[in-house]
Amino acid sequence: MKTVERHFKLTVCGVLLAPFASIVQAEPLELRTNTTSLTLEAFANVTAGFTPDDSGNTRDGDVRVDGALRLLARQEFADGPEIGARAVLRTSPEDRLEIGEASVLIFGKSGRLEVGDRQGLPDVLVGYAPNNFTFTGAEFGPASGPSLDPGGGLQIAFLDRDLAAQLAPLTSLGFTASQAADESGKALYVSPKRRGFLAGVSYAPDATDPRFGDLVQLGLTHDTYWTDNVLHIGGSYSFAEGEHVPGGPPVRDLHSINAGATLVLDYDLQIGLSVTYDGASGLTVAPGDPAPSDAVGAVMSINYNRGPWTVGAFAQWAQAEGEGAVAGNDELRAAEAGVSYRTSTHIRIYGAYYYYDFDDEGAQSPNSNFDGGVFVVGVRASL
User: Quick one: which of 121, 125, 90, 89 has its CA closest to 104?
Assistant: First the structure.
């Protein structure tokens, strides 16, 4: 077995942050005294996207840089739980420099309690392993920041802004429960893993999405291990109260369910399947409008790791109501294939092609179908 392969398997087996991760992770920088520690992590993703025109020629590409600096401070005590503080400073073309996350923590044998601005249901405190509550993904792409996952947003960032805004809510269907990426102020709890089970719950009094107020997220997963194989199953549920717009129809409450499974064979081959069902959540329907379409989506993915190489692909189908006054729904059929090469535990080169076929029910032109693709290449540096 090659050295990097052995390093990969020992990393995944020993750390177990995400048993289905296919990424050789760099060790974070840690400063420690007897009772205190400071963990420093950082990454920068430089990505170029190229979109072919109607004649098949490739247009000039755009280049974006996404990066973040993550700090975690912990204080241990002789008796009782540990306390900590976590902050993330990040930058992107959309937000040049911002505090992405900031929270305080209490953690111990009974799990972790966290309060602050934070994504709901994360179980990875340090490192760049996939979220425990997702089951499909593009393991050949960036491990954090905008990613090549089905709902990661990196591919559509190179499309026309209006088209990207229409595709964005559809790309999360099948990948996660809706509002899973909400980063409003919240309290969350993640349990310790026991007998293969891991649970999480979070509550936000005011979701970032203006359609919703209180947001509750619940998740439960289970891992079964045998020899070098893992079966990861589970799901998550999001509930949010719809906010009433003065003078307009009420917004329907959010009820979003995501369920899926990931099968890992020999810690190299990953096969994932995930579905999301939202029904008519978050919609406003005025008197006389046709019955709204259900929002539903499914994703299937496959990834294979061999030494420094990772190859993979996913296929996605999703539909949701586009225009409440128009019968029918927006529909997305998308697929992606990609490859990456790790020159070291700190540097990763990646490339992919993303294809989309989008049927816009609200289009004013006779042809409501739009299709196209994006070539993406980039390099990731991480600490």
Answer: 125
